[in-house]
UniProtKB/TrEMBL annotation:
Annotated region described as Disordered, given as residue ranges: 296-335
Gene3D superfamilies to which the protein is assigned, alphabetical: 3.90.70.130
Pfam families: Peptidase_C78
GO molecular function: hydrolase activity
Protein name: DUF1671-domain-containing protein
Swiss-Prot/TrEMBL keywords: Hydrolase
Residue spans of biased composition, Acidic residues class: 303-320
Domain UFSP1/2/DUB catalytic stretches: 60-246
C-alpha cells in the first residue's frame, strides 16, 4: 500500500500526506512567546523549524512509533542545509518509508551491520508488525552514511527523580549548545530572545514500550523544565493541522492564536486517555542497547511487565480546539483562533516515570566514508554520567 511507504519533505511541491504536518514548530514558537508574555515560562528552545510531525496510521497504530520517529528525523535531515549531501544519502536508492525502512535494515544486516539485531529478529523484518527501537534506527542511518549517536540513561532505585533531571539537562545542553538559527543574519537577535528556534535536529527518545521525537524544551517561572515532543501516537486535532498548513502556505502573516487575555481558573478541564490492551501489542519489543558489556548483552524489555495501558506521559491528548465557555458565557474559541495555552500543553511532555532511556542524536558531522561505516557496524552507545 502507498501509505505504508509514503514519505514527504517540506521541499516537495505536492501537498503533505494526511498524517504529515509541517509548520508546527513555527506555531509552537509563537504560542511559547505568548506564554512568556503572559508570565507562564521563562524561556524555551526549539529544534530546526522545518521539523515535521508524522503520525501513525491505522495499519501501524500499535507498533509504528519507531518508524514514524525515523521518518520525522529523515524529513528534517533531508531538508537542512548544514549537510546537504544527507538528502541524497537518505533518498536513494530506496526512499524512507515504514516498509522501506524494514528493507533498509534487512539490507544492512546482510552487509554485516548489527549482527546482534539480525539474530534477535531472526533476519526477518519486512512485512511484519515488529517494533523497532533506536538501535535499529542507528543501524539504518549508519548503513546510509549519516552519523548518529546513542546515549544511555539508567537510573538507580531511589535516584529516578535526579536521573530524570540529569537527562533533561543533557537535552537542554544539546539544544542550547548552538542556539543560533541557520540564518546567521539575525542569529544575534534570536539568541537573545526568551523563545528561540535553532538549527539542531530533533532527538529520538526511547523508553520501555514507546519512543517519541523531542523538538525542544521549556522552562517555567517555577524553574521546572518540560520537554517538548512530537508524539507519533497522539492524534492531532484536524483544526490544528489545517491552521498549520494554512499558516505555512500564507504570505499574509495572519494571527493563528487568540491573544492572551485574563487568566481563567480551572481552564484545562479535559484530557482524554487512550488505553492500549496488552493483547493488542506486537510480539516484538524494542531494544535499548547498553553502553557496556558485549554487543549481545541486550536489555530485554518484557511487555508482560506492562500494566496493559500506555503510561500517562504517552497518552494525554489535550483538546486544543473545543469551544469552551468563559464565565460570561462567550466562547473562548471566538474569531477562529487557537488557544495558545492548550497548544503548548499538547506538545508538552508531562511526566516520565521510567528508569531507562536511550537517545538518538545527530551531530551533523560529515557523511561517513565506506570505511567509517564499516567501523560502526556494531551498535554502540555512550552511558551518560
Amino acid at each position: 500500500m502507498k501509505s505504508e511507504s509514503d514519505f514527504w519533505i517540506p521541499a516537495q511541491s505536492r501537498p503533505p500526506p494526511h498524517n504529515y504536518t509541517p509548520g508546527l514548530i513555527h506555531l509552537l514558537k509563537m504560542a511559547l512567546k505568548y506564554s512568556h508574555t503572559h508570565g507562564d515560562i521563562r524561556q524555551a528552545v526549539l529544534c530546526y523549524e522545518e521539523a515535521v510531525l508524522v503520525n501513525v496510521e491505522p495499519f501501524d497504530r500499535s507498533w509504528g512509533c519507531g518508524y514514524r520517529n525515523f521518518l520525522m528525523a529523515c524529513s528534517a535531515l533531508m531538508t537542512q542545509q548544514i549537510q546537504p549531501s544527507y538528502s541524497d544519502l537518505l533518498g536513494e536508492p530506496i526512499s524512507p518509508g515504514v516498509r522501506n525502512l524494514q528493507e533498509w535494515i534487512e539490507a544492512a544486516w546482510r552487509e554485516g551491520y548489527d549482527a546482534a539485531g539480525a539474530n534477535d529478529f531472526k533476519d526477518g523484518l519486512s512485512g511484519t508488525k515488529a517494533w523497532i527501537g533506536t538501535a535499529e534506527l542507528y543501524t539504518a542511518f549508519t548503513f546510509r552514511g549519516v552519523p548518529s549517536k546513542l546515549v544511555d540513561f539508567k537510573f538507580e532505585d531511589g535516584h529516578t527523580a535526579q536521573g530524570l533531571e540529569d537527562m533533561k539537562k543533557w537535552i537542554k545542553d544539546y539544544f542550547t549548545s548552538s542556539a543560533e538559527t541557520a540564518d546567521s543574519t539575525d542569529g544575534i537577535l534570536r539568541s537573545s530572545s526568551p523563545v528561540k528556534s535553532t538549527n539542531k535536529m530533533p532527538l529520538i527518545l526511547q523508553h520501555r514500550g514507546h519512543s517519541r521525537t523531542i523538538v525542544g524544551y521549556m522552562e517555567t517561572k517555577k524553574n521546572e523544565t518540560f520537554l517538548l515532543q512530537f508524539n507519533p501516537s497522539d492524534s492531532l486535532p484536524s483544526k490544528v493541522r489545517k491552521t498549520a498548513l494554512d499558516w505555512r502556505d500564507s504570505s499574509l502573516g495572519w494571527e493563528p492564536f487568540k491573544k492572551p487575555g485574563p487568566r481563567l481558573e480551572n481552564f484545562f478541564t479535559q484530557a482524554m486517555k487512550r488505553k492500549t490492551p496488552v493483547s493488542s501489542l506486537p510480539p516484538r519489543i524494542k531494544r535499548i542497547r547498553p553502553s557496556s558489556g558485549p554487543i549481545d548483552d541486550v536489555i530485554i524489555l518484557d511487555p508482560s511487565e506492562d500494566d496493559g495501558t500506555l503510561d500517562e506521559d504517552e497518552d494525554e491528548d489535550i483538546d486544543i480546539c473545543e469551544n469552551r465557555k468563559t464565565k460570561n458565557g462567550k466562547s473562548k474559541e471566538g474569531n477562529g483562533g487557537l488557544d495558545y495555552e492548550d497548544f503548548v500543553n499538547f506538545f508538552r511532555l508531562k511526566t516520565l516515570r521510567h528508569k531507562e532511556f536511550q537517545i538518538l542524536s545527530f551531530p551533523m558531522d560529515d557523511p561517513w566514508t565506506p570505511e567509517e561505516r564499516k567501523s560502526h557496524k556494531v551498535v554502540t552507545s555512550v552511558r551518560s554520567g
